[in-house]
Amino acid sequence: MTKPMTEPLTERQLGMATEKALTPPPPGNPVMRLRDVGVAFAGRTAVRGVTLDVPEHQVTALIGPSGSGKTTLLRTLNRLHDLTRTAQVSGQVMLGDIDVYGGSISPTLLRSQVGMVFQRPNPFPTMSIYDNVVSGLRFNGARRKALLDEAAESALTAAVLWDSVKHRLKAHASMLSGGEQQRLCIARSLAVEPRVLLMDEPTSSLDPQATKRIEELVTELKTRVSIIIVTHNMQQAVRVSDYCAFLLMGDDRAGQLIEAAPTTKLFEDPSDERTLDYINGRFG
Amino acid sequence: MTTLPAPDPNLARREEIQRLAAGSENRRKIYSGVAMSICGVFLAVALVPLVSVLAYTVQRGIRAWSAAFFAHLPTPAGIPGGGIWNAIVGSLIIDGLAAAVAVPFGIVAGLYLAESEGRVAGVIRFAADVLSGVPSIIIGIFAYIALVRGLGHFSAAAGSFAIGVLMLPIIIRASETAIRSVPSTLTEAGLSLGARRSTVARRVILPTALPGLITGVLLAVARGVGETAPLLFTAIGSQYFASNPTQPMAALPLVVFQDGIQAYPDLQMTAWGTALFLIAVVLVLSVGSRLFAARLGRVR
Ligand SMILES: Nc1ncnc2c1ncn2[C@@H]1O[C@H](COP(=O)(O)OP(=O)(O)OP(=O)(O)O)[C@@H](O)[C@H]1O
Ligand SMILES: [Mg+2]
């Protein structure tokens, strides 16, 4: 991109992003690279020394016991810790060849490329289904109706929600069930065509049926976006992810990366004993 | 030969607890009755003055009400057919101007307080608290010295200033509460879509908090409409129709005060009628703010 990084997305750039998503770049390249990433809250280290390559167009699962810093690590990737005054991030995070904390990209522009789906569905309560889906585009300055309509249909179709909501796009988002709301939130993130989608336990508030549909969705979406998903559920990690990173807190209570490997390798033949203990349910 | 099972300690404990519960039932009924009666007494203590003031005002005031009462200008004592049209318009102008300034300032200040934790925010919050405790007559005197004496004449605008200052802390605190009650995950969702903080505030936080903001504004207006003391030093009242805010102007509470202390029965009746109207206006505003607050609860 030749324009200064701090500019909001223009309609053309958003349009280009839509086209780009249709032709996935060659797999194998890491989309995000973490080098010695650490996070401290008010001087207390919560995550330490994480070095990890996140493969492009794959699903990467972050697993580990409660308090091991999965959420904390995830939120460093789209700079959500910027909101917490006490939070201090160290190390290097690269998105492609952009240094996330290097100052060459504004947090806002970064977040339009690294979206996030949260634990509980959080559609904007004052907006209709349609307005929710296109909200990110509008926040970034897109106004042209054709562009918004196209993006809405594309994102809702990708989130397997289009058929059930296309006749009630003007209805309130709160009319939808919890699972549908979560898919709406996924569509809302997809509509801005991010390169990476962060998901923090996206099914933990859903029933098994809705969970299944989200899991299916996650595996379908990886042609469009690289996904990093935090989960407590190891079956889920096995079902949805290609690559898996295991975090555990050390003796100093700070979370560390114990092991990262292709999911089948990590679950069938972990190289660290602690990983084996964890996946066998021996602690955490 | 079978041995009897050993007595289950849990079963024994359960029996004892149930015996105790049954034994204390009567005692608890008596306590409950006593507590209910005490509540009833306090309810009566609270309701009696309220109901009697209301009933008395309705009884005295309703006789003043007629189409002419609301549509006509005041007449001198003894001449029938006078009304409070100028005071209705005056209150609308004075309180409208006050709200027009206090509402945007108050909401922006509330947003700032809700979004920041620093020292400055603490000072502003404290200042707003102190301001809401200052007697309204003091604010009236301040407006008198600053604006009336400064400009050389009484004016509705000086009244608006004083009323606006009274409204401000109410709006600030209500807005802060309403904005704080917007879940932070909505802010994070907005930011995660690439929105700037100001965009999130404008497009997500404020619309979500809107019912609460309206509640605060209605409460502030309800408070401002009834304020008399600050207007005595500023808008001062008028027998004529006035719509120019730089001039003295009539207002509903001023009619109650000024006509109410006259010896003429017809002016006193006007005062009662106006008082009843003021109560009705405040009641509508308060009920309205309740309804909006209820809507705020439903959105979540
Ligand atoms: N805003 C914050 N301020 C202070 N400490 C925090 C903050 N957020 C997280 N922490 C600390 O960081 C550590 C890791 O928390 P984190 O939420 O990342 O764990 P997690 O792996 O996501 O756990 P869970 O599986 O329960 O969600 C915890 O010790 C937590 O107390
Ligand atoms: Mg977590």
Descriptive tags:
heterodimer; A: 284 residues; alpha/beta; Rossmann fold; 4-stranded antiparallel beta sheet; 11 helices; 10 strands; 37% helix; globular; disordered N terminus; B: mainly alpha; MetI-like fold; flat; binds adenosine-5'-triphosphate; binds magnesium ion
- The DSSP helix count of chain B reads 12
- In the predicted model, the low-confidence regions of chain B spanning at least 5 consecutive residues are none
For the largest interface, the chains and their residue counts are: A-B, 33 and 23 residues
Widest sheet of chain A: strand order? 6-7-8-3-9-10
CATH architecture of chain B: Orthogonal Bundle
User: Which quaternary structure do these chains form?
Assistant: heterodimer
Can you put this structure into words, describing what you see?
The complex is a heterodimer of chains A (284) and B (300). With 284 residues, chain A is of the alpha/beta class. Chain A has one domain: 3-Layer(aba) Sandwich (Rossmann fold), CATH 3.40.50.300. Chain A is built from eleven helices and ten strands. Chain A has helices at residues 11-22, 70-77, 107-113, 129-139, 145-158, 162-165, 178-191, 208-221, 234-240, 263-268, 273-279; strands at 30-41, 44-55, 59-63, 87-95, 98-99, 114-117, 196-200, 226-230, 243-249, 255-262. In chain A, strands 6-7-8-3-9-10 form a six-stranded mixed β-sheet, sandwiched between helices. A four-stranded antiparallel β-sheet of chain A has the order 2-1-4-5, covered by helices on one side. In chain A, a hairpin with a 5-residue loop joins strand 9 and strand 10. In chain A, helix 4 (129-139) packs parallel to helix 7 (178-191) and helix 5 (145-158) crosses helix 7. The radius of gyration of chain A is 19 Å and the shape is globular. In chain A, 47% of the residues are buried. Chain B is mainly α and 300 residues long. Chain B has one domain (65-299): Orthogonal Bundle (MetI-like fold). Chain B has twelve helices and no strands. The longest helix of chain B is centred in the first third of the chain and has 37 residues, at 25-61. The structure holds adenosine-5'-triphosphate and magnesium ion. Residues 70-71, 200 of chain A line the site of magnesium ion (MG).
